[in-house]
Design goal:
InterPro entries: Amino_oxidase, FAD/NAD-bd_sf, Flavin_monoamine_oxidase. This protein is α/β, with parallel strands linked by helices. It is built from 11 helices and 18 strands. β10 and β11 form a beta hairpin.
Length: 425
């Protein structure tokens, strides 16, 4: 087994798989190293827990008309639902369903919150989103909940300028057999023989010499080029060390772009207990209890007898810390409020995520802290022209998405190819 490669890719999420597949297809000697025992990162489709596919992480083909993974899904014959997430949406208020005027008022409040953040960003203001929110009660909690879902963090830690940099066409389509399955299928089609070594955490990258040296459980590996495709949190907390140390401005950028929390609690039932159309969406907010945080659900996703609850921000992080039972109780309480206590008797399985405690991920997706939006651009720099970075956080306009990560992986691979070609010339 060779210990030297043209390129080593660290991380086998959407970015790392894209980079590795592009390089392998170009005929260079590339190896992908993944710390976890599986590939995909947060693109993780679970088919074993309930016997049906559901995504523990990313699920939406965001900006579908310009999303290369949507085009790849078409080529692969993988189905997705091409309608917006607001269709078939209802709102439960704790003891009753909202009427149409209340539902419209709730969404006006949510829309006004995002519009205020956008206006501030478009005006060049790099401030906390919380400074511009003026959502009429009783919809403040619901608006904050949706900010949590979209950014994975609280408005107090969300840069308005970073938020407005995100480009979204509004076409957000769920993938029937799973986004994680799609990401892996795309990489497999691009490069069927790509070598990916799982269970192989890289602990140190030494970029001081002519070649880049990596410390791994396999021993010391070297490469002419290295692409680092791991989450910002891993680097910021020192989970991946560098020698020499990262330049101060780059280290500061990783710290200023932390991952928030976006978690799920999924319930499987022995039959359809909801009586709603396949892939219906429900918001919940308990108007009786101002301290109770909202949760929203996808019901009967693609016809499966399930409810998948989505949580974000501090509430998601607190529930993960409290344990799977706390997340289950929180989600089931909202479901039984809306559909009756008897549905609990039909639960056949429960699954919860805990991305914030995953040592190789550490959260959801990146969001610039207020005042630090400009630091995202710093992630595009290289170390000695030999170490490059990829991942959703590196994308200037599609951060927080799988396709943003995928595109940065392709770009890093192309840059490595150009460097290798220039050296050969």
């Amino acid at each position: 087994m060779s210990h030297h490669h043209d390129v080593i890719v660290v991380g086998a999420g959407a970015a790392g798989l894209a980079a590795g597949a592009r390089l392998h297809r170009a005929g260079v000697d590339v190896r992908v190293l993944e710390a976890a025992t599986r590939i995909g990162g947060r693109a993780f489709t679970d088919t074993g827990t309930f016997g049906v596919a559901w995504d523990r992480g990313c699920h939406w083909l965001h900006s579908a008309s310009v999303n290369p993974l949507r085009a790849a899904a078409d080529d692969l014959g993988l189905a997705y639902l091409s309608r917006g997430s607001r269709q078939a949406r209802a709102t439960h208020l704790g003891e009753r369903w909202a009427d149409e005027s209340e539902r419209e008022a709730a969404w006006r409040g949510i829309d006004s919150a995002f519009a205020a953040i956008k206006r501030a960003g478009e005006a060049g203001r790099d401030i906390a989103a919380s400074e511009v929110l003026e959502v009429p009660e009783p919809w403040t909690r619901l608006a904050r909940h949706w900010i949590n879902l979209m950014s994975a963090t609280e408005p107090e830690r969300l840069s308005t300028l970073d938020y407005v940099a995100y480009a979204d066409t509004g076409e957000n389509y769920p993938v029937e057999k799973g986004y994680g399955a799609l990401v892996q299928s795309v990489a497999q089609r691009m490069a069927p023989a790509l070598a990916v070594t799982t269970g192989c955490p890289v602990t140190r990258i030494d970029w001081s010499g002519r070649d880049v040296a990596l410390e791994t459980p396999l021993g010391r590996l070297t490469a002419s080029q290295v692409i680092v495709a791991v989450p910002t949190s891993v680097i910021a907390r020192g989970g991946l060390a560098f020698a020499p140390l990262l330049p101060a401005d780059l280290a500061e950028a990783f710290a200023a772009l932390p991952l928030g929390a976006a978690e799920k609690v999924a319930f499987h039932f022995d039959r359809d207990v909801f009586g709603v159309a396949a892939t219906s969406y429900v918001d919940t907010i308990d108007l009786r209890d101002p301290a109770r945080r909202p949760i929203n659900f996808v019901l009967n996703p693609f016809g499966a007898p399930m409810a998948i609850g989505q949580l974000g921000g501090d509430n998601a992080a607190r529930l993960v810390e409290a344990g799977p039972g706390a997340m289950e109780d929180f989600g089931l309480a909202a479901l039984t409020d809306a559909f009756g206590a008897e549905i609990a008797r039909h639960v056949t399985g429960v699954a919860t995520t805990s991305w914030v405690t995953d040592p190789f991920i550490g959260g959801a997706y990146s969001c610039a802290l207020p005042g630090f939006a400009h630091m995202r651009a710093r992630l595009a720099q290289t170390l000695g022209e030999r170490v490059r970075f990829a991942g959703e956080a590196v994308s200037p306009h599609a951060y927080s998405t799988a396709h943003g990560a995928y595109l940065t992986g392709l770009a890093a691979a192309d840059a490595a190819l150009a460097w290798l070609g220039g050296r050969a010339a």
